[in-house]
Amino acid sequence: MKFPIIDMHCDLLSYLEYVPGADPFFPKIGCNLNALKAGNVKLQVMAIYTGTEKGSSETGLKESEIFKQLLKTHSDKVSLVKDIASLNTAIASDKTGMVVSIENASGFCEEDEPVENGFKKLDKIISNVERVIYISFTHHGENRFGGGNYTEAGLKDDGKKLLDYMSGKKIALDLSHTSDALAYGQLEHIDKHNLDIPIIASHSNFSAIFDHPRNLPDDLAKEIIKRKGIIGVNFLRAFLNNDDPDVFYDHVLHCVNKLGGENAICFGADYFFASEPDPKRLPYYHKDKEDASCYPALLKNLEGKVLEGFLENMSHKNVVNFINRIWKP
């Protein structure tokens, strides 16, 4: 059976913004529109990503406008998912549904401006795209909100303000790029002030299987699961295992069998295009995960290793249930 697929993270928007003459059908980016179609992807989360640098918020706004234009130009291929009704329509249609996320809050707030100005820019982005499903405070490095996964910095005062701002807005907090200190600081602030913020890791693997700063320690993964969040398995070779493509299945089974995450696990492939590739990391993906056409084969290879119903859950139902819970009127 070919299940509908939901994937929680790709970087098509930043590719279309950063690369001159970028084409959403370009085969060298794994989340190109043809590959999404071939993989039966019914909802793809499109990240607005920018580095922490001067002009980052202008880039974030531009990517939101690219998202709008993509929907308009390729209306025969893609559709907007902004509520539960449009999600259900996308899953039943022959198009790929799209919704925006924000990877790095520098995409709406400069380092040297009043944080309230950044919130106004966030509101403008949300107005452009109609729905933001999650926000990650940082990328790899540190910014005014906290520390990324290659740092030891924790939650800063502006990060507390951003959490307060997010509460009740039905936008999830993404822990995929946080330092451990930032993640625990965020959770402590949410609990201390009884904030209404769902918790996820949109594109992360498990450090117990492969030790890397981008991967989740078990206690943090368990916290996401306890809070009824979701965890999207990342396809990047550097985070799975550089040498063995089959370790992908070990990450999935660790989440299910060791952490109790059968209702949390999903896909977060993290397809991107590097105009200046890092030769030390090439190839970025194992051959069996080079583009979004691979999801059906990955699920098929899990047959016999998981309980009945799990493949449907991982492919899309865990995310559908999560969205139904956080987006309900």
How is this structure best described in words?
By secondary structure, this protein is of the alpha/beta class. It has a single domain (5-327), classed as Metal-dependent hydrolases (TIM Barrel, Alpha-Beta Barrel), CATH 3.20.20.140. It contains 12 helices and 11 strands. The chain has helices at 12-18, 33-38, 56-73, 84-92, 115-129, 157-166, 180-192, 218-226, 237-240, 247-258, 295-302, 310-327, and strands at 5-10, 41-49, 78-80, 96-103, 132-136, 142-143, 146-147, 172-174, 199-200, 231-233, 265-267. The strands form 3 sheets. Strands 1, 2, 3, 4, 5, 8 and 9 form a 7-stranded parallel beta sheet that branches. It has a two-stranded antiparallel sheet with strand order 6-7. The protein has a two-stranded parallel ribbon with strand order 10-11. α4 (84-92) links the parallel β3 (78-80) and β4. α1 packs across α3 (56-73). The protein is globular and about 55 Å long. The relative contact order is 0.14. The model has no long low-confidence stretch (mean pLDDT 97).
Features:
329 residues, alpha/beta, TIM Barrel, seven-stranded parallel sheet, 12 helices, globular
Question: What's the helix and strand layout?
Answer:
Elements: E1 5-10, H1 12-18, H2 33-38, E2 41-49, H3 56-73, E3 78-80, H4 84-92, E4 96-103, H5 115-129, E5 132-136, E6 142-143, E7 146-147, H6 157-166, E8 172-174, H7 180-192, E9 199-200, H8 218-226, E10 231-233, H9 237-240, H10 247-258, E11 265-267, H11 295-302, H12 310-327
Parallel strand pairs: 1-2, 2-4, 3-4, 4-5, 5-8, 8-9, 10-11
Antiparallel strand pairs: 6-7
